[in-house]
Design a protein that fits this description.
Helix content: 25-40%
Number of helices: 6
Number of strands: 9
Strand content: 15-25%
Strand order of the largest sheet: 1-2-5-9-7
Length: 206
């Protein structure tokens, strides 16, 4: 199907009486001066969910895939990580877009991982969430740790961010399982938030 075809997405939601969806289509522009690449998809999916919700009579729970730089950095006065590490800044446009949608129709969340790699070469269908080792936090980077590099003049804070970000790599399977498990909740604590994640074995002291 065409992920930019809002009408087709709406019809799919209506025909199947869906109450949730996960959007992982599209690839964000890497550099800030590049033209946004996935906003047409985000707009199409969000608009389709809102219209379908109005016709179905209940809100649609939606997960959108974003990136870590859309999160606030707890050690930098809650400034977005993209201010210091300006890659994949397009995810901020996704956040802006979803924040403007009616909350009564669109119960959205943005999953904001760092690099994701496949855990397995083969893809299999699961009947239920398999469990995952992810720890989540709304809107800010979870378990952030300032290193000695942060005290180095000028470049220290940037080096500190790069070193920290290496701890946040995850797998595609764990991210998919995290979102699937969240969809089973009657009420999710992540609705209306950017959601940062880290593997539990990468937390400080582990």
């Amino acid at each position: 199907g065409d992920a930019t075809n809002s009408r087709a997405i709406e019809e799919a939601l209506l025909n199947n009486q869906c109450n949730a969806l996960i959007n992982s289509a599209g690839m964000a522009a890497v550099l800030p001066w590049q033209a946004p690449q996935m906003q047409v998809i985000v707009q199409a999916v969000a608009n389709a969910a809102v219209e379908a919700s109005r016709k179905l009579g209940y809100p649609i729970r939606c997960w959108f895939l974003g990136g870590m730089t859309v999160l606030d950095c707890p050690s930098k006065n809650e400034t977005k990580l993209s201010y210091y590490f300006p890659l994949f800044t397009e995810h901020a446009l996704t956040y802006e877009c979803l924040s403007q949608k009616p909350a009564s129709n669109l119960k959205w969340s943005i999953l904001a991982p760092s690099a994701m790699t496949p855990a397995n070469k083969e893809i299999g269908l699961l009947k239920a969430p398999r469990g995952n080792p992810l720890v989540a936090k709304n809107d800010t980077v979870p378990d952030w740790s300032c290193t000695f590099l942060s005290g180095v003049p000028y470049l220290g804070m940037y080096a500190d961010i790069v070193v920290n970000m290496l701890r946040y790599n995850t797998t595609l399977e764990d991210c998919a399982d995290f979102m699937a498990a969240d969809l089973t909740k009657e009420e999710s604590e992540h609705v209306g938030h950017r959601v940062g994640i880290i593997m539990s074995n990468q937390k400080k002291g582990q």
